[in-house]
Design goal:
The structure holds 2 protein chains of 2 kinds.
Chain A: E1 3-7, H1 26-32, E2 38-42, E3 49-50, E4 69-73, E5 85-88, E6 104-107, E7 109-112, E8 119-120, E9 128-131, E10 134-136, E11 143-144, E12 152-154, E13 157-159, E14 166-167, E15 173-175, E16 178-180, E17 187-188, E18 197-199, E19 202-204, E20 211-214, E21 219-221, E22 224-226, E23 233-235, E24 243-247, E25 250-252, E26 262-263, E27 268-272, E28 275-277, E29 284-285, E30 289-292, E31 302-303, H2 328-331
Parallel strand pairs in A: 1-2, 2-4, 3-5, 4-6, 5-7, 6-9, 7-10, 8-11, 9-12, 10-13, 11-14, 12-15, 13-16, 14-17, 15-18, 16-19, 17-20, 18-21, 19-22, 20-23, 21-24, 22-25, 23-26, 24-27, 25-28, 26-29, 27-30, 28-31
Chain B: E1 2-3, E2 20-22, E3 24-25, E4 33-34, E5 43-45, E6 52-53, E7 59-61, E8 90-98, E9 101-109
Parallel strand pairs in B: 1-3, 2-5, 4-6, 5-7
Antiparallel strand pairs in B: 8-9
The chains are: A mainly beta, B mainly beta.
Chain lengths: ~350, ~120
């Protein structure tokens, strides 16, 4: 397990052994890593690494013995404070990760202006972890997970891409991420196998549906799906027996004609404490079966109460308080979610 | 930030000469679509200008300005021109053959990378 360094402004030996002798391109680090290695990346004076050639994430995989291969962006002083290492595609073709590339951890990286997806996988790279990464202004998808399996995204953002914010992917987990202002869907699960788990995310202002073809059995909780062009959520509806959980979400402002808040496509949904407002058509439609979170079967969702900027609050009457405190303000804990 | 991509179906905003756009998606359906014609001194900073022809005096900062043809088979809800399954955007096919007879073909598509 080796610690390596990337600094596109370095002028030393270019061998990645220290900040002084850092690799001058991230590709060099990718080409030289072994399982368990950590690669720190910084711009000591510039603001980004502009690619001079296609970028190929086809390095050696991490493994369960030696650990993940980690790329971690740092500030100009070399400290991990959330500053991202920016990779600007500038029209270079982006070559995707190859089959051998599993168990990679990418933290504080930004992928922008690629002529394809910001980041993608071919031949089923598995078990990627993305923390505080940004995928923006790429020609197609922010992230193309068509072949990438079991990815975890934590505090990432995908915005202003030429197609979907995130395309497909099996077994994807998303925590405190944002998908917004993309030309296509915020997230297109493509109906692929593997449950999508989404918690605490923002999906808004996308040119098509917020969440599309989400596989049955998905868990979507405490997220905001707001103002997407053709509707909020559309489930895939391919399975007859998997239950999709929709708990504590705001699904609002899908107000183009006939837009639906949640189109269940015949799926079984388990719902509770969601808030719906200003969806042009039904808030929830086409559910094969609806299960409510209360054991008496009563509906705890709040619909069209005119409350357009609040999270879930007590239903009028006050008896349906399912939280430890009755104070709506105290129940809402501010979480910073990146949008750029 | 806002989204004026063609998929959004919103008209472009009315702005004055010298307006600065930051973090706006202006992706257009067809290559070389003129936007904000006649408006001078515009600045586009960190915007997506795919398929856009901006005024010649506009300043473009950190904003992709490529031109590409979208495939309707990839984006069936975008209101693109109808294409056959075996369209010009096919980049790969998976064929199932039984007893020498092709019984199924799966097409893989890609939006055209660059249109000059």
């Amino acid at each position: 397990m080796t610690t390596r360094y990337v600094d596109n402004d370095a002028s030393g030996a270019d061998n990645g052994t220290s900040w002084t002798h850092a690799y001058q391109t991230i590709q060099q680090a990718i080409d030289n890593v072994a399982a368990g290695d950590i690669v720190y990346c910084r711009h000591s004076s510039s603001s980004q690494e502009t690619l001079g050639a296609a970028l190929a994430w086809d390095g050696t995989s991490g493994d369960e013995t030696s650990g993940m291969v980690q790329f971690i962006g740092c500030n100009s002083s070399g400290t991990n404070d959330g500053t991202r290492y920016v990779i600007d595609g500038s029209s270079q073709t982006y070559t995707n990760a190859a089959d051998a590339t599993d168990f990679w951890h990418l933290e504080n990286l930004e992928f922008k202006q690629m002529s394809g997806p910001g980041f993608g996988g071919t031949n089923s790279p598995d078990r990627f972890v993305f923390i505080n990464c940004s995928f923006n202004n790429n020609a197609t998808y922010g992230v193309d997970c068509t072949q990438l399996q079991f990815g975890t995204f934590y505090r990432c953002t995908s915005y202003e891409n030429g197609s979907d914010g995130l395309n497909k992917g099996a077994g994807i987990e998303l925590f405190f991420c944002s998908f917004h202002s993309n030309t296509g869907y915020g997230l297109n699960a493509g109906g692929t196998w593997g449950t999508t788990i989404m918690s605490g995310c923002l999906v808004y202002d996308n040119g098509d549906m917020g969440l599309y073809q989400i596989s049955d059995g998905a868990v979507i909780i405490n997220s905001v799906i707001d103002g997407n062009a053709t509707g909020g959520i559309k489930l895939h509806g391919a399975s007859g027996d998997l239950i999709t959980h929709l708990i504590g979400n705001r699904i609002t402002n899908h107000n183009t004609a006939s837009d639906i808040g949640v189109d269940a496509s015949g799926s079984i949904i388990y719902r509770g404490w969601n808030y719906y407002q200003d969806n042009d058509s039904d808030n929830v439609q086409n559910a094969g079966l609806v299960l409510h979170i209360r054991d008496d079967g009563s509906n705890t969702d709040v619909e069209d109460q005119g409350d357009t900027d609040e999270g879930y609050t007590d239903l009028t009457g006050g008896a349906e308080d399912f939280n430890l405190t009755s104070s709506a303000t105290s129940r809402r804990t501010a979480i910073t979610i990146p949008t750029t | 930030m806002s989204n004026y991509a063609f998929t959004r179906g919103l008209p472009l905003p009315t702005v004055d000469n010298g307006h600065v756009f930051e973090h706006v998606n202006f992706v257009q359906k067809e290559p070389h679509t003129a936007i904000f014609a006649g408006i001078t001194g515009l600045t586009f900073n960190k915007c997506n200008l795919t398929n856009c022809d901006v005024p010649v005096d506009a300043t473009i900062i950190d904003s992709p300005n490529r031109h590409r043809e979208f495939c309707t088979n990839l984006h069936p809800t975008w209101g693109l021109s109808v294409e056959t399954e075996n369209c010009v955007h096919v980049v790969d096919t998976d064929t199932v053959t039984i007893d020498g007879e092709v019984v199924d073909i799966t097409y893989h598509y890609q939006d055209t990378t660059e249109v000059l």
